[in-house]
Structure formats: structure tokens, C-alpha cells
Amino acid sequence: MAAPKKGRRPAGSQGKPGRTLVLILIAMVALTGGMFLSGHTTPRLGIDLAGGTTITLKAKAEPGQENAVNETNMNTAVGIIERRVNGLGVSEAEVQTQGRENIIVNIPKGTDSEQARKQVGTTAQLYFRPVLAVAAGGPSSAQPSPSSSASDKEGEPKQGEKDKATSPSGSPSGSPSSSSSPRGRAVTEGLKAPTPPPTGTSSATPKPAETPKPNPSESAATAALEKQFAALDCTDAKSRATAGNNAKPADTTVACGKNGAGVWEKYVLGPAEVDGKDVDDAKGQLDQQRGMWIVTMDFTKSGSKKFEKITGKLSSQQSPQNQFAIVLDGEVVSAPEVKQTLSSSAEISGSFDQQSAQDLGNILSYGALPLSFEEQSVTTVSAALGGEQLRAGLIAGAIGLALVIIYLVVYYRGLAFIAILSLLASAILTYTLMALLGPAIGFALNLPAVCGAIVAIGITADSFIVYFERIRDEIREGRTLRPAVERAWPRARRTILVSDFVSFLAAAVLFIVTVGKVQGFAFTLGLTTLLDVVVVFFFTKPVMTLLARTKFFAGGSPWSGLSPERLGVQPPLRRSRRTSAPTEPKEA
């Protein structure tokens, strides 16, 4: 005898909702535990909430190269500026294009904004120029002297003396302040192993170059340059900004730069012999043998020939005319001496510290941008202002959540309990993921992202409403609660998936085609939309299935939100158990 076939479950039924519910609870506990174990218990805040600096740069093509402002060059510039900022140890900075000719740089708090601004703003071409003369940074009426220097005036050893006179520890043996000077010498082609520094102090002093005498036949250009040099005041920011403006690579020009003691000096510089594009790589690193920080440079094939030519000329000169100045945006960032002819590679050594060595290596590596940029705006947001914005966003979210809960309680009564539990589950998943995504992928919660999370409250509540209304429709058709819950699910599921797919598609498109803070809104909206699907499928549906078996909901309590009477449905008629009396025949 064949065994009777088991009856089929209603479409959309869930045999063991407890297992599904346990699965998502385990996931929530795991994410929460991972958040505490990693130590990242709060989401990483963006610049507009935590404070930081936003710099807007506008591309400017050189005269006669108007077509240089194009997508390729802009993307190259973004990569170079990003590496510059990251070279400062700022791993959370954002560099991106905005429109056709703007670049936005976002630098979070905790970074030296002035230092970062200098690195980001130094976007002109990098040049190596021979030094013709050096003098103190203030204005003077004297002619530029090749042998003059700020160190001479302050009683310190001349640069050449600093390089030759070293103590047994390897530090310059001049005045104490001379040990901070980043000016050094370019040595060892091919980065050969250096010899230990000599002990003792050398008494030899290089013979300073003779002061050039005024020549009546000097050209007007030379006279104008001397006048400009004498009037240049490198201690004044405005004067520094205009020093050497409009100077072409082939021109002799003036420039300002700081020495190791932080004192401004002014220079007369010859025509550029090498530019930044000729540098293949450069970096600041610690020389373990000598126990000192150095900067190493590697040149391209064409750059090696140029560098060999200029170092050959400079190595036979006396200080300061044996120096080459590394000039970026018209400012001398370093002026090392040349002791021998070099070509493919070189080393700049001296009294660098870690910061100055890495800064110089960073500038040399990424100084050659394909475009010049001008600073359009710099916006600094303090942590206090960011805290106020975050507080306002959280208040707005709390108000929106409170209104949604009030509506659910008034309209759905007992069903509001299920909706609130689902919103709580969604909030836990969203918070833990945001906290973990910060260190994982660099996600930062900015103000638009907070807005995206607030909008997600409505999207999540909409999914609950769709399901609840489908259940009510089944009850209006005369079904009891448990069958109504299972039959309503397939219909509600399709609607929820379609709705969430449209929201996620909009978020994805917005994330791809936009830049900056709008991407934070799109990312948060997409993330919460995916979590809405997870919560509805793995939390709301199992909880609804379990609660449908309770007397409060299954009995149609007026406070359950599923009362047939309140939904306009008459309860089904019950058969009477009493036997009716026989009908007596009527009398004629």
C-alpha cells in the first residue's frame, strides 16, 4: 500500500524561521565583536565632520600650450599630487578632479595643513639652476656677491667649510645651529658605499670668489637683475611670491629659499640646466653606515646627460658658484654643493633630519607636473564646526526616525513592534559595517553620507509597509493570519526587490558619475539599500512568521494591527451544534 503523499506547504512558507533568525543574529554578533576587537568602535569621520582642509586648484596652461589642459594631463596631475600628499604620511587624503580644469584636495585633521598646502600648491615645473650669488634675505643696496651668504653675516662657517669640517660624530663642527642645515653636497655617482667621515676638524678654508666689479658695459637686463636682487626682501611673503615671476627656463633670475637655520636667503640663479621631468626617482632614506639621512636621485637617460654636463661645470667652481639650486615654484628648496661630475644618479647629503630628507625626496620625485596650477580656494573646517554639523545631522536623523515610529505605532499598532526591531537590526548592521569599512577601504562618514543614512530609514520602513499591507490584503480576503503571512510574502518580496533594485541602481550611477562628498551619499544609500534586503529577508520575515503563531496576533487582537473587524472583514459563520426541532405540519 503506497504511503500517503505529504501535503504541500503554501507558496512562500518558511518551515524553520528560527534557523534563519539565528543566522542573522550570529552575523550581527560577529560584526559587533570584530568592531571591538579591531579597536575601531566608531566610524571614521570625513573632513566636514572631523575637521580638515579642502584645497581647490585650477589648471592653467602655459602660453602657447592651451591644449595641455586635457583629461590625460589632469589625471597625471591628480596621481602626482596624491603621491605628494601621501608622501607626508596622509593616507586618508582625497585628490580628485572636478569638472574639466579643477582638482580638489581634501586633507583630514591631524595633518600639518600648512606643510601639506605647500606640497600640494607647489605645482609648477621643477628646475635645477646653477647658483651665481647668495646673500642675506633682506633688501640691500649692495651688488650681489658670489661669496656672500647669510651664514657669513651670522658668524657661521661658510657652506664649503660646513661640508669639509666635520666632527667625529659626523655632524658639522661649526656653530650648533649649523647642524640643521639641509644644504649638503652631491656625491658618489651610482650610489657607491661612502667612507666614514674623518675625525678632527679641518682648518682648510676654501678661498671665496672675488666680488665682481661693476662693469659700465653691462646690459640693461643685467642692471635690472641687479636692481631686482638688491630690492628683493625674502623675509616678506608678498615679495617672495613675486620673486622671479615670469622667468623662463633660459633666463637668469632671482629666488628665495631658507637655510638650515630657517633663515631666508636670496639667490641669483642661472638658466635652468635640468628640469623635473629629467628626474626618474628620488627618495629620502637613512644611511645606516653613516647614521644620517640622505636624499638619493636617479635621472632618466636624457636627464643623465644634462646633469653630467652641469655638474662637470660646477665641480670646478668655488662656493657658492659650485652649488645648484633645486627650484620649485620660484622657491629654492635646496642648494647642495657639487664636488665631482655626476650623471645617472646622485646623493644629496648634509645635516638632514627625517622630515627634511623625505620632503626633498618627495618634491624631487613628484615635482614635474604636466600643468601649472593656481590655488582657487582653501577651506578649513575646525573639529568644533564639524562636531556641530554631525550633531545637527544626528538630530535630524532622530527626528525622522521618531516620526516614522510614531506613524507605525498609530497605524499598525502591534506590527510596529516588528518594524522597530527590524530598524534596530538594520541600525546595528549599518553602524558596525561603517566602523569596519573605515580602516578596510578608507570609508569616511561625511555630512552627505549622514543624509544618505537618514534617507535609508524611509526606504527600510517602506519595505515593512509593503509586507504588512500584503498581509492585510490576505486577511481581507477571509484568510486567517498564518496562511496570510505565508501567501503575502511572495508578492511582497517581488515588490521589495524591485523597489530596492531601483534605489541601488540610482546610488550606483550617482557614485560613478559624481566626485567628492556626493559619493559619500551614494555609497551610504547603496549600502543601506543592500542591508534593507538582508534585514527584510533574514529578520523581518522570520520574526513575523514566529509572532503569527502567538495568541495576540493570531487571535486578531484589536491592538495587533491585524484585527479582521478593524480591517472591515466579518468573522466566518460557525455551525450551530444544537439539533433543530422537527417542523410541525400546519393545520389546514
State the end-to-end CA separation.
61 Å
Helicity, in percent?
Answer: 40-55%
**Major β-sheet annotation:** 5 strands, mixed, barrel
Poorly predicted runs are 1-5, 145-207, 573-577
Strand content: 15-25%
- Approximate shape: elongated
Structural features, described:
With 588 residues, the chain is of the alpha+beta class. The chain is 44% helix and 16% strand. It has a 5-stranded mixed β-barrel. A 5-stranded mixed β-sheet has the order 9-10-14-5-13. The chain folds into 3 domains: 23-45 and 382-554, Multidrug efflux transporter AcrB transmembrane fold; 52-121, Alpha-Beta Plaits (2-Layer Sandwich); 125-192 and 219-355, no CATH class. The protein has helices at residues 17-38, 47-50, 71-86, 113-121, 150-153, 159-164, 220-231, 237-242, 301-314, 354-366, 383-412, 415-441, 447-476, 481-513, 517-547, 551-554, and strands spanning 52-60, 94-98, 102-108, 126-136, 185-187, 253-258, 264-269, 274-275, 279-287, 292-299, 324-328, 331-334, 337-338, 345-352, 372-381.
